[in-house]
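Long-time lurker. I teach an intro course on protein structure, and each term I like to show students one example going from raw sequence to a predicted 3D structure in token notation. This year I'd like something fresh instead of my usual example. Would anyone be willing to generate the tokens for the chain below so I can use it in lecture? Attribution to the forum is fine with me.
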Amino acid sequence: MRAAADILRQHRLPVTAQRVAVLSEVSRRPHATADEIAEGVRVELGSISRQSVYNVLTVLTDKGIIRRIQPADSAARYEDRVGDNHHHLVCRACGHTQDVCCAKGHAPCLTAHDHHGFAIDEAEVIYWGLCPACQRKPKR
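-- Reply from a regular --
Happy to contribute to a lecture. Here you go:
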């Protein structure tokens, strides 16, 4: 990932220590929750409120710099892989999330049976299953 400050400037956002730290943490920890991102940012900055982290994540998401995903029954997760048509694998047991490229390649990768007048430009796919580590765990 390009330097966080350069990305912020490219999107005409003021470069602040909080924005740089949050964007850098999202890059280091793809699919992390806001609380996990806040923990990493606190290591770097020493102090930042949860609300400040949420505010930065919202701005970065709104500008298309990062992507917010929210699998069912899960906290929102953030990643800096944007602009391509990829989907996610999510482990039902531990929640581990992994990127997977779209088999079709371009968006939208699915065709709705009836588009009801919508101009569909994206389809979000989440594959559910058990990750290799959870498959190896003894069954109860």
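Some talking points for your students: The chain is about 35% helix and 15% strand. The chain has a mean pLDDT of 91.
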